[in-house]
Amino acid sequence: MSAMMLGWDGAGWSWMMLMPVVWIALLAVLVWAMIVLIRSGASDPSAPTAEQLLDRRLVNGEIDPEEYSALRRRLRGQRRAKG
Question: Residue 50 in contact with residue 75, Cβ under 8 Å?
Answer without folding.
Answer: yes
